[in-house]
Amino acid sequence: MTKKWVYRFDELDEVEAYVGGSWDGVKGLLGGKGANLAEMARIGVPVPPGFIITTEACNKYLSLGERLPKGLWSQLGEALKSIEKSSGKKFGDPHNPLLLSCRSGARFSMPGMMDTVLNVGLNEETVEGMIALSRDARFVYDLYRRLIQMFGNVVMHIPDEKFEAALSNTRKAAGVKTDADLAAEHWMAVTGEFKKIFRFHTHHEFPTEPYAQLQMATEAVFMSWNSKRAIAYRNAAGIAHDIGTAVNIVAMVYGNMGDDSATGVALTRSGTTGEKKIEGDYLTNAQGEDVVAGIRQTKDISELQTEMPKVHGEFLKVAALLEKHYRDMQDVEFTIEKGKLWMLQTRDGKRTSQAAVRIAVDMADEGLISREEAVMRISPEQIDFFLHPQFDNDALKVAKASGKLLAKGLNVSPGAAVGVVALDADLAERWGKQENKPVIMVRPETKPDDVHGMLAAQGILTSRGGRTSHAALVARQFGKPAVVGVTELEIDFTRRQLKVGDVIIREGEYISVDGTAGEVYVGEMTTKDPDMKDVSLLKILSWADDFRTLGVWANSDYPVDAKRAREYGAEGIGLCRTEHMFMETERLPLVQKMIMADMEVHRNEAIQALLPFQREDFSGLFRVMDGLPVVIRLIDPPLHEFLPDHISLIRDLADLKIQLQHALRLEDIDTLLQQVREKERILHRVESLREENPMLGMRGVRLGNHLPELTKMQVRAIFEAACIVSREGVDVRPEVMIPLTSHVNELKVQRELLEFEAQRVMEEQGMEINYKFGTMIEIPRAALTADQIAEYADFFSFGTNDLTQTTFGISRDDAESGFLIEYIMQGILPANPFETIDKNGVGELMRIAAQKGRQTKPELKLGICGEHGGEPRSIEICHNLGLNYVSCSPFRVPVARLAAARAALKFKMQTITWEADKETETAR
Ligand code: ADP
Ligand code: MG
Ligand code: MG
């Protein structure tokens, strides 16, 4: 038996059996569009009859060197017969002709593939038959000219401008403005013109045999799989080249049969805000792509309710049915033929981050999906969106009151964008990328050729187009704020300026675009940090909290940061860097004095002078974090970082000496001499502290052991603060963290000393504080000997930045500005290990440390405080390692809460093993 290459829409059960039941398999064989057409037919949505030529047929056709596989054409004939039967029309029949659309559709939606050809099957005879039936010559010639135009353009690659030019000549000659005003005889003449164009460009007559049309169109779809554009897109999107495209052959329904006919596109919920309200555009008396082409101004779907209330009601029912079935917001294409609704496509709709969150939450609340699914549907990047700026509400009011509101349009992609006007994509790219200027790209409408400019712009503004226009879709996809369809906006390319009423804005001048409200303002408006008050966002995060097992803490050095972290949901401070406090103006001289002191008494004096400052810092942090743990890391960087740098010291000294040579007055000479001596003293100390590799030198616990008075002072400050704040009634939970341990004895010595000091403070104060001592794990030796180290640590916190540096033996600053980019581009490294944890190396050390540490001390608390703690993939690794918490920047806390929940749910669903999850090491 020959293979089955063709499946009718009503043969979906057979397809499922063939692919083994999975929906992914169905989509693989039928393509996304075909699978959904068949599925819609199965669940009772009105879909015109049709069939699908499989992706296997496409692959076979290509492998045979562009020849139709055996049996395909006869199977197609059979399938066609069944459509003829159900439609009561016949393909090629001069009296009652069936027309078809021929549509490509791969498994993934893929620009660059062949466009659809409508009205296949028309020729001189069938045209006559249709005119006799419809008694509408205008309608039929409109169909015919569209066929020649689409066939010529899509199948024969004749530039569309040629056809458009002929059309515009006809309009001029007829003295009308739009196509709608052209009469039957005009369309007839246009058809003749189009045939001439066809002949001129292809040296062939337009094929009049319906089956020949169908075959050429089908083969053109197959061949378009290997078009340059399609290959480039697949490369960019990482789609395999061997999956092929299906061809959908569908009986035509006509949206251009008069005022009770229409064609349109819609989303079942708002793609901008997620509101449960159908959003879309349609055109009465139009066909196919007219809506998205921006030829005529479209109508909002809400107008359908008054224009065709019955169809509108039916549309609502279909939309609800589709959502219930697909359990997601749908993006649909439809046509209304003489008051009857037909669905021509459905797929999951694109949406903004804001809409994604709202839709997931609403659908869970409506019982369409579970809360787990809702959480899994939201990506960490979508949460991140909420943390980005919007326009300040008050600033908006002021701007409106002072007449700065320039125009209103459709709010198709939210967010605030400020920039200078650029009127074409190349300029937008040049200003945005090379000159680093913020740019708003302004166009009548956008095309695929404009994408590079859109990417370089902060925001996008167009005068035409609807919610489903190219500009809207691209902007949404890339998270660029955009306003489209600003009809009052006149773009003058000769004068390079915009005009709204009598306001003129020249190219290069500032405007502000509010993609959330759909408004455009003159000048530069201020943006403000978002407040995380979105109801749906708060809900999804609270659900995430229910599912995650990892704690989410924050890295904060100051009470203000800690406060924000708490507001964002942090459950502790995982890293407070005490040295940041040393850098402040009042304190730095004391720190320098401490470093410069020759005698121990002097040094201790300086150290003691720092105590009250540190005590204050810690008290503030403890108060904010009432009831939650605060991990304070003792001094970590090498001391020279607190002194002026060597080169500037030498330069200053040289300057002073020159001044000294020229000084005449005795008192000047005196002060200058003093200054020279002081500089020399500092220089000597800097030189004595100078190390070849300071990052691998006297720092961390080594410094603590070298200058115990310093870390003792810090511990005293921590515990004095804890006692003071505790007396105020605050629940204090300090955790002292010792950095950079590599050998257990370093930690043992330091901890004994410090814990003794802590005890002393508590005795002096007559109080008991609940505290922990622990260490960072950021040196491979510490990870490998974690069983010993755990004896002296109540907790480990992975410092994955230093751990990555010491594991790879590379310095981050040198690597990131040097060879690392080359490595990633060449595929030598799969990713930047400073961005996402290198699972096989650094991750493996973490695994060993966790396992050995808990072997010694089962209750050992494990966390991570490197920047990786806020990165989703790294969070997943931390979850799988059984860490207790991740700690990250306050701004990453909401993202980390979601990522931790997703990691937990994923782990639960798939029971991933550590080994199976390893990254492949083979170079690309
Ligand atoms: P794309 O993948 O570019 O959206 P489609 O194959 O969905 O291309 O076709 C584009 C449009 O052509 C559809 O939205 C619809 O308006 C029109 N169309 C396709 N098939 C038919 C048909 N059988 N009857 C009427 N219109 C059709
Ligand atoms: Mg479509
Ligand atoms: Mg470190």
Structure, explained:
By secondary structure, this protein is an alpha/beta fold. It is 49% helix and 16% strand. It has 38 helices and 33 strands. The strands form seven sheets. It has an eight-stranded mixed β-sheet with strand order 14-24-23-16-17-18-19-15. An eight-stranded parallel β-barrel has the order 26-27-28-29-30-31-32-33, surrounded by six helices. Strand 18, helix 20 (470-477) and strand 19 form a beta-alpha-beta unit. Helix 5 runs antiparallel to helix 6 (137-155), helix 29 (708-727) crosses helix 30 and helix 37 (872-880) crosses helix 38 (893-910). The relative contact order is 0.06. The model has no long low-confidence stretch (mean pLDDT 92). One magnesium ion binds at residues 333, 345.
Summarize the structure.
The protein is built from 38 helices and 33 strands. It is of the alpha/beta class and 924 residues long. Helix 14 crosses helix 21.
Give the arrangement of secondary structure elements.
Elements lengths: L5 E3 L3 H8 L3 H20 L7 E4 L1 H9 L8 H16 L2 E2 L5 E2 L1 E7 L10 E4 L3 H11 L2 H19 L4 H15 L9 H19 L7 H15 L3 H10 L7 E7 L10 E6 L11 E6 L5 H4 L5 E2 L3 H4 L1 H18 L3 E8 L2 E9 L4 H13 L5 H7 L2 H6 L4 E2 L1 H9 L3 E4 L1 E4 L2 E7 L2 H10 L4 E5 L7 H6 L2 E4 L7 H8 L4 E3 L5 E3 L4 E4 L2 E4 L3 E5 L4 E4 L4 E2 L6 H13 L3 E5 L3 H9 L5 E5 H5 L5 H9 L3 H25 L4 E5 L12 H17 L3 H24 L10 H7 L1 H20 L5 E6 L5 H22 L6 E6 L2 H5 L1 H4 L5 E4 L1 H9 L3 H5 L2 H8 L12 H18 L4 E4 L7 H9 L4 E4 L4 H18 L14
Parallel strand pairs: 3-4, 16-17, 17-18, 18-19, 26-27, 26-33, 27-28, 28-29, 29-30, 30-31, 31-32, 32-33
Antiparallel strand pairs: 1-2, 2-7, 5-6, 5-7, 8-9, 8-11, 9-10, 11-12, 13-25, 14-24, 15-19, 16-23, 20-21, 21-22, 23-24
Helix pairs in contact: 1-2, 5-6, 6-8, 7-8, 14-15, 14-21, 15-21, 21-38, 22-25, 24-25, 25-29, 26-27, 28-29, 28-30, 29-30, 37-38
